[in-house]
Design a protein that fits this description.
The complex is a heterodimer of chains A (579) and B (159). Chain A has 18 helices and 20 strands. Chain A is α/β, with parallel strands linked by helices and 579 residues long. Chain A has a 5-stranded mixed β-sheet, with helices on both faces. Chain A has a 4-stranded parallel β-sheet with strand order 12-11-14-17, with helices on both faces. In chain A, helix 2 packs across helix 3, helix 7 packs across helix 9 and helix 7 crosses helix 13. With 159 residues, chain B is α+β, with helices and mostly antiparallel strands. The chains are: A alpha/beta (579), B alpha+beta (159).
Chain lengths: 579, 159
């Protein structure tokens, strides 16, 4: 590799050609302030916070887009730079809605942090403010442009990474704003509710539609029987909200905290992930044996599902008819559990804690319910749950580990890996292999399905029958994969698609890492590692070995894909127009 | 002017042909948008979506360009486009009162089109005939040295 030598603040640096000054500085632990820059997402040199002085250059340069060159002499910390950056920041603040005390991002805001760092102690350019136009029609995402600093990180996440194009930059000058075409709401746009925009936003211009008030109200209602279920990826994300390192497993503390919040039952979406494998695994076998529509594509990710319905409706017949796991559990709670315990399902309030904002939209789908009752009554993101735990005065970090409640809280290692890209595929293969071959799978780890590559593919030998599989994460990658299937270039039997890059571990409802953190930490990798560690630590690692799964089939559903299972655990999809 | 379905179809055929011819040019977006604006008089969401899909860019990008440049309009233009000059000379000579009278007479704000689709009112920059200030232009016809009382009579010719 062609290496380049330069000096930054007198420190000698050698980096690969093509690196930026910002990356070179980071490699020798020199932090240059940034705001619009977000590694792998947005690199446009717009905000001018990362200005540096380069010897011999006429003007100050933006480090995030300035490539290194041989012998370059860079200064990052001069009086001139500190002044230039501070004035830029003061100008950004001049029309910013500085409601910091009531802002959802207070304390975790990159703009606020920069003000501390650069010593902004007054607002010399106080002027006209961008009008507050809050778009809260979407069930998932709220946008408040009075806090937007026009960094375009959300636009890059939506357009370049996810290839949705729901939001863009409109108008010019002071009227410039980020939003949908013709001032439409996100709810009237092709937005898939993935929330990648939220976790890209440095400030409080984007956040999830808050459901904590609904959940508190249910918890305070003596007539309500309130049941909670956290998704697999929640247990590897939540700790970060309490200052724990990225990739910390907090399963036991999570169960304990939920119990302390006052939920009547603390179940686990992981149980339903095992149930999904039974239903989806048998659905796949059925399609293969009976000449059904192939490739079958997984249906756990509601961001992906809306993407498919909107951008690739021709693949709707390929979608597994399985509801997503938390919807399955909601349905099981309001039928099996309610009947068994003599509780009126109308009094049951099911709360899902999800790493996901699209689940808030999914919850409202009219087809996801039974007898006029929605399967799930409220969806909280990981961030919202953390806010509730803090509000309740629970010392999360020092909680003793507890277990989930019996039967609907029991799960295997196959369920927890749903949280990482490739996990549903691997979990399905563990079960399908044993069902088809009748043999015990000794090596349960399928390494071909793991890792954060955008698209993975492999062939699996099931007793002589070769099953061709593919995995895509992030809808941008899904689009590439589906195009190759559509053109006939590729043929597969089974495809897993997750709407977010890296899968649920990097979902739009997870704790937000700052751009500075994301320069050195990849949450997709660290949280996925925690997921696989959790899997390995489990005694049972195949869904069909879960004794509670065996029990529910014996007592209630009969067998996978039975009539009753179809009634409660499967769903339908609708083609959608972009506008 | 509102288009008949037949005109619309012809316009879309012409636009598609133009896109086909130019989509591989360097930076084709602006010229295709200009062509669409010429054909339709404005850029509807439908037209912008067609352009976006043909060029494989998000419609938000087309919309971003359409709202950045004043030359593009998002609304259909009226049968007659009426511009009142608000350049320096006309302004000093009282064009603000003329514009106000136009808005009152047509019951429509500047930048918009009357409900009956007859007039689109614009406050323009200098039209280059400052000697006639204050000036109003309807379609290609220039009316100069105006006072608000002249407005109703002139508009009557077009109503």
């Amino acid at each position: 590799m062609n290496m380049i030598n330069l000096t930054i603040d007198g420190v000698k640096v050698t980096v690969p050609a093509g690196s930026t000054v910002l990356e070179a500085a980071k490699s020798v632990n020199i932090n240059i302030p940034t705001l619009c820059y977000l590694k792998d997402v947005n690199q446009i040199g717009a905000c001018r916070m990362c200005l540096v002085e380069i010897k011999g250059a006429r003007a100050l340069a933006a480090a995030c887009v300035m490539p290194v060159s041989e012998g370059m002499e860079v200064h990052t910390n001069t009086a001139k730079l500190r002044e230039a950056r501070r004035v830029n920041l003061e100008l950004l603040l001049s029309n910013h809605n500085r409601e910091c005390t009531s802002c959802v991002r207070s304390g975790k805001c990159e703009l606020q942090e920069l003000c501390h760092q650069l010593g902004v102690d007054e607002y010399p350019y106080d002027g006209k403010k961008t009008e507050s136009e809050i778009d809260e029609l979407s069930p998932s995402i709220v946008r408040d442009n009075s806090k937007c600093i026009l960094c375009r990180r959300c636009v890059a996440a939506c357009n370049d990474i996810q290839k949705i194009g729901a939001i863009g930059v409109a108008n010019r000058g002071f009227a410039t704003r980020v939003g949908c075409v013709f001032d439409k709401s996100l709810a009237e746009s092709p937005c898939i509710n993935c929330g990648q925009c939220i976790i890209s936003c440095p400030v409080g211009a984007l956040h999830e539609k808050d459901s904590t008030a609904d959940v508190w109200a249910a918890l305070n209602d003596p007539d309500k029987y309130v049941i909670v279920q956290p998704a697999p990826a929640v247990r590897v994300g939540l700790g970060e909200e309490f200052g724990m390192p990225v990739g910390t497993r907090v399963t036991g503390k999570l169960a304990a905290a939920l119990r302390r919040l006052g939920f009547d039952k603390v179940f686990d979406t992981d149980f339903a992930a095992d149930l999904t494998i039974m239903e989806e695994g048998y659905e796949l076998l059925g399609r293969i044996q009976n000449g059904g529509v192939l490739p079958m594509i997984t249906s756990c990710s509601p961001g992906w599902i809306k993407y498919c319905e909107t951008f690739y409706p021709e693949f709707i017949p390929n979608l597994s008819s399985c509801k997503s796991p938390h919807e399955m559990l909601g349905a099981v709670i309001k039928s099996y559990f309610a009947e068994k315990n003599g509780i009126d399902p109308k009094k049951i309030f099911v709360v899902s804690v999800m790493p996901c904002t699209a689940k808030k939209f999914e919850r409202q789908r009219p087809e996801l319910g039974h007898d006029g009752l929605a399967d799930v009554d409220a969806v909280l993101t990981v961030r919202e749950l953390a806010r509730m735990i803090k509000a309740a005065g629970i010392d999360f970090v020092n909680l003793e580990d507890e277990e989930f409640d019996d039967v609907l809280g029991d799960s295997t290692g196959a369920a927890v890996i749903f949280g990482a890209t490739g996990g549903v595929m691997e979990a399905a293969l563990r079960t399908v292999y044993e069902v088809v071959t009748g043999k015990t799978l000794e090596k349960v780890d399928f390494h071909a399905t793991r890792g954060i590559d955008g698209i993975k593919e492999a062939e699996v030998d099931l007793n002589g029958k070769i099953v061709r599989i593919a995995i895509a994460n992030g809808t941008g990658n899904a689009s590439k994969l589906l195009d190759s299937v559509k053109s006939g270039e590729k043929q597969y039997d089974f495809i897993e698609i997750m709407g977010c890059p890296g899968g649920c571990v990097n979902g739009g409802g997870q704790p937000i890492l700052t751009a500075t953190q994301r320069m050195t930490i990849d949450p997709k990798v660290l949280r996925a590692k925690a997921i696989y560690d959790e899997d390995e630590a489990k005694t049972l690692r195949k869904s069909h070995e879960n004794p509670s799964i065996k029990k529910i089939y014996a007592e209630y559903f009969g067998e996978p894909n039975s009539h009753k299972a179809h009634e409660l655990l499967h769903t339908t999809y609708t083609p959608r127009k972009k506008y | 002017m509102s288009l008949t379905n037949e005109q619309k179809e012809q316009n879309y055929a012409a636009l598609n042909a133009f896109i086909e011819e130019h989509k591989n040019d360097r930076g084709p977006l602006m010229k295709i948008m200009q062509k669409a604006q010429d054909l339709f008089g404005y850029l509807s969401l439908e037209t912008q979506t067609l352009i976006a899909d043909a060029l494989h860019v998000p419609v938000t990008e087309v919309y971003g360009v359409a709202t950045f440049y004043a030359q593009f309009s998002l609304q259909p233009k009226g049968e007659h486009v009426l511009g009142v000059c608000t350049g320096t000379a006309c302004y000093v000579k009282g064009s603000a009162a003329v514009l106000e009278e136009v808005e009152r007479e047509l019951n429509c704000k500047s930048g918009h089109t009357t409900e009956d689709g007859k007039f689109t009112i614009q406050a323009t920059r200098c039209l280059g005939c400052c000697g006639l200030a204050p000036v109003m232009v309807i379609d290609e016809q220039v009316y100069g040295r105006l006072v608000p009382a002249d407005v109703a009579g002139i508009l009557d010719k077009y109503r």
